[in-house]
Amino acid sequence: MKLTFQHKRISGILTVLPARELSFLEEMKNYNFPEARSLKLMEVMGYDKRRVVKEGDCLSDLAVFGLKHLFERGLLRPEEIDALLVVTHSPDYILPPTSNVIQGRLCLKQDTLCLDISQACAGFVVGLAQGFMLLEQESIRKVILINGDILSQRTSPKDRSIYPLIGDALTISILERDAQSPPIHAEIKMDGSRGDALMIPAGGIRLPCSPETAVLEDAGDNNLRAKDHLRMEGSAIFNFVQTEVPPLVESLLARAGTPVREVDYFLCHQSNRFMLQKLAEKMNIPQEKVPKNVVENFGNSSGATIPVAITFNLAAKLKNEHARICLIGYGGGLTWATMLMNIGKLAFCELITFL
Amino acid sequence: MKPISEILQEIRPEYDFATSQDYINDGMLDSFDVMTLVAALEKNYSISIPGTAIAPENFRNAQAIQEMLNHCRAHP
User: What are the residue ranges spanned by the domains of chain A?
Assistant: First the structure.
């Protein structure tokens, strides 16, 4: 799917991170692996620190905290919000939608379009595309795009393939019309036939959570996980990313008439350091144009990692000037998506801690 | 430069790799070991292994790894 948007921009980005920090070195003893093996993996993958919520905290708690932060500082007025778009696969409830929950808790106007989108690591690009489409409507002048996941509650502490990677985070991006903004190009692809490579088997209607789905099982790799937990076929996902993502980005840049040298940053979903290094090599992109430091500082928070990378690495720059940025998301679904746009002169670009 | 067998032994010292012709299906290397192995091979042989070469069939045994390395050298 090739998409083009005219006269749209991101005007501000806020990241909300939980205060609780976990350390891979302290958690290593939980895994069913020799310490030396885990240490080698730490170096290759970039495992170190990560942020997770305390038990009971949900996505709407982080969202309400972040939006109140913006209201209190005069960076956003509640009555300006025409659409509230929440991209997550860890909602507060199956029903009502988390976007409605947030709208209700903040007493936003009834003329707010609340939409939940169930997407994973490509969720920032998918959310931007949907948000820009909403801005085609005259009555929608400001879209609040929320990307976030609370996956630490759905991963097994005995699963070294997932648990040390996952962090919780939420980001709030403000999308608006802007007559001065250059065209934004995007390409999005999906393949549901490979969806079981990254999934949480239990918790929906197909397989409701039960005492049986909570039982830890060894899938043959010394990692223990239950059907309630997130599971990933590491090799399949790695090969999917290395095979599918580079041609999609190449197609986007060709369509936009923008060579790699004219792109300031390639902001990829922060899956792990190794994956990003290999992706940059494959696409012939200088490594310094591809930030890779989110996993080691905060963990992989699914669809939130791209805006987390922006607020962590580029805040000072993007408050004062524009940069030509290629966004690249890939993951559960399977979904892979890329977008080329100018981002800059942001009213705010910051990272705050949820207390 | 260390031989491939020595690098494998450092990653999984509990296994005798000489006894297997299929490290993946025999459970001697999982996907995380393969990533660790790639990083070690790149450092040891001063080459770059492309992401698309990181597939189970290229790490099935020492011969497959050697052929993959030869291919990487011939097509940098």
Answer: 1-355
How many Å lie between the alpha carbon of A240 and the closest alpha carbon of chain B? 9
pTM metric for this prediction = 0.91
CATH architecture of the domain covering B4-74? Orthogonal Bundle (1.10)
- Tens of pLDDT along A282-340? 899 999 999 999 999 999 999 999 999 999 999 999 999 999 999 999 999 999 999 99
Contact A37 B12 (CB under 8 A): yes
CATH 3.40.50.10800 fits A1-355, yes or no: no
Structure confidence by residue, pLDDT tens digits, B3-54 = 898 999 988 888 888 899 999 888 888 888 888 899 999 999 999 898 888 8
Q: Which of A64, A88, A91, A58 is nearest to A78 (CA)?
A: A64
To the nearest 10°, the Cα dihedral for A194, B72, A262, A123?
A: 20
CB contact under 8 A, A44 and B31: no
CB contacts < 8 A, A to B, total 56
**Tokens 């801005």 belong to residue:** A135
Cα–Cα dist A31/B38, whole Å: 22
Q: Which of A18-32, A108-122, B55-69 has the highest mean pLDDT?
A: A108-122
| Cβ separation A43–B32 shorter than 8 A | no
User: How near does any CA of chain B get to the CA of A243, in Å?
Assistant: 6
